[in-house]
User: Which sequence fits this backbone?
């Protein structure tokens, strides 16, 4: 028998599936998450756990959980789970990505309608015996321009419904393809600032990451139309709450509808809730009978099928490969992942349409689909969130209309093995190729048309230049003056001939200041400079315990 703990409230239909499974013993303690020590003790006796947002599985809670094998989150967000700690413990983490998409999209539309028609305060005035028709004159949605920030599953579902309301739908997403946007009747923007200034209403649907935290801030609010309305049914913190308060107080912001907050369960005197033109609800995005049943059934199935059938579904930190095979493939996974990170950072936010990978030599004997997933994970992880893994990266790319293709040949060229990746953006193609030396050394051997031999780890400064005498010395002198240490340098020349265009890759031990970068950029023979951050040499892959 396998013991499964359910540490939050769960729909009865999900509990019934667990109770009636012949190989599962259910331990239902929906309030136990409020006592951390009790939760840790209960997990010691559990093979699996089903949670919702109330349970916080921190590193402290997960460390030492030797029996626990699988965590199923009945919902999409896994920000209440320490994924690295779970991976180190060998615990699979799965979510239920489809269960609450429609309910959250409908909540967004409901909030938008309620905000624009003053439904909340008008209803309250009726309860108080008043008949204030003139006071609550609203705004119709047809013909208004809405900006949807983040076009994943929920963002696209919201956009579809806004089109049905005859609104002009603009969308911001760094990865959704132009073709997919056109199909959904969305005017796509790659620059969020260009989108925001055109909107009457803005709704956010991104994960909460370092890049998206406070993405709607005071500076951006000030540039929006006077009277703009804001909606957040995604994650608290995407909209800077203090900036929003100031915008409401000044009258520049016409109103807001919030279902999520930086601090959940805000107090009765919470500042935001006190504004008459702010509609607040207590995180109801997934609070429909249908959504709760669907995520409960999906979470119960995930746990049961993993424990009894070794089936892995919707995992965000699990590689579908045996341990022995995984160890033999690690260097290729790492190489592909770093090439994805490199190309993502050198594309400078251009719209990504797809990528072509070519495998040559020894790598062709390895699981190439898995290696392609590792590349895609690196490509997408910078702009999305930490839960983009080797397991879900392909689906994430597909959802955004990004086509990743691969070809292979067992014939070797200059190297026994090589992975070449070409990124296709709205404006150009960028190619990077790498190889492995031994089991631990990764090299960048091609960048666009230039052949070179650069270390593929740490902080890289890439600069394009004319291959003239004295330039390398000038760059070295500049960094020396600014206390930046160069650990390695690689040079690639056009047709491998002196005097023409060239590219250099410097591995730096510390990050250069803006002044140092400017001095390099201002050199008359330098044509372009960019910094790329890669993991240190031999760093663990983010979705592996290796």
Assistant:
């Amino acid at each position: 028998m396998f013991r499964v703990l359910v540490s939050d409230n769960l729909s009865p239909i999900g509990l019934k599936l667990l109770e009636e499974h012949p190989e599962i013993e259910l331990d239902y303690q929906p309030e136990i998450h409020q006592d951390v020590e009790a939760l840790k003790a209960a997990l010691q006796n559990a093979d699996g756990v089903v949670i919702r947002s109330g349970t916080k599985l921190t590193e402290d809670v997960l460390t030492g959980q030797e029996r626990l094998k699988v965590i199923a989150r009945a919902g999409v967000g896994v920000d209440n789970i320490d994924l690295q700690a779970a991976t180190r413990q060998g615990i699979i983490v799965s979510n239920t990505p489809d269960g609450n998409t429609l309910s959250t999209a409908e909540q967004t539309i409901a909030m938008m309608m309620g905000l624009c028609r003053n439904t909340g305060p008008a209803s309250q005035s009726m309860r108080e015996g008043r008949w204030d028709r003139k006071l609550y004159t609203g705004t119709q949605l047809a013909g208004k321009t809405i900006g949807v920030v983040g076009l994943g599953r929920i963002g696209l579902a919201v956009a579809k419904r806004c089109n049905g309301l005859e609104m002009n739908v603009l969308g911001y997403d760094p990865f959704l393809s132009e073709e997919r946007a056109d199909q959904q009747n969305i005017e796509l923007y790659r620059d969020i600032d260009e989108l925001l200034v055109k909107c009457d209403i803005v709704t956010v649907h991104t994960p909460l990451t370092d890049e998206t935290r406070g993405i709607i801030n005071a500076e951006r609010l000030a540039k929006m139309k006077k009277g703009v309305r804001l909606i957040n049914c995604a994650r608290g913190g995407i909209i800077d709450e203090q900036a929003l308060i100031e915008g409401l107080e000044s009258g520049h912001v016409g109103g807001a509808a919030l279902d999520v907050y930086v601090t959940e369960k805000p107090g009765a005197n919470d500042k935001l809730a006190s504004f008459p033109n702010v509609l607040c609800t207590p995180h109801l995005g997934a609070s429909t009978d249908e959504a709760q049943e669907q995520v409960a059934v999906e979470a119960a199935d995930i746990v049961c099928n993993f424990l009894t059938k070794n089936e892995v579904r919707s995992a965000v930190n699990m590689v579908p490969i045996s341990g022995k095979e995984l160890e033999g493939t690690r260097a290729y996974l790492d190489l592909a992942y770093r090439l994805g990170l490199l190309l993502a950072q050198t594309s400078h936010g251009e719209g990504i349409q797809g990528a072509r990978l070519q495998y040559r030599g020894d790598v062709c004997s390895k699981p190439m689909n898995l290696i392609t997933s590792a590349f895609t994970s690196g490509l997408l992880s910078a702009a999305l969130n930490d839960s983009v893994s080797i397991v879900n990266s392909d689906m994430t790319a597909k959802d955004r209309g990004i086509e990743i293709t691969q070809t292979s040949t067992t014939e070797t060229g200059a190297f026994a093995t090589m992975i070449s990746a070409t990124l296709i953006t709205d404006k150009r193609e960028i190619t990077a190729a790498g190889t492995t030396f031994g089991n631990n050394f990764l090299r960048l051997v091609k960048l666009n048309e230039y052949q070179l031999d650069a270390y593929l780890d740490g902080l890289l400064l890439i600069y394009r230049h004319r291959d003239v005498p004295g330039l390398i010395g000038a760059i070295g002198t500049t960094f020396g003056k600014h206390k930046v240490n160069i650990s390695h340098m690689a040079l690639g020349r056009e047709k491998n001939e002196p005097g023409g265009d060239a590219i250099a890759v410097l591995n730096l031990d510390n990050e250069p200041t803006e002044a140092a970068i400017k001095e390099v950029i201002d050199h008359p023979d330098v044509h372009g400079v960019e910094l790329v951050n890669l993991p240190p040499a031999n760093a663990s892959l983010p979705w592996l315990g290796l």
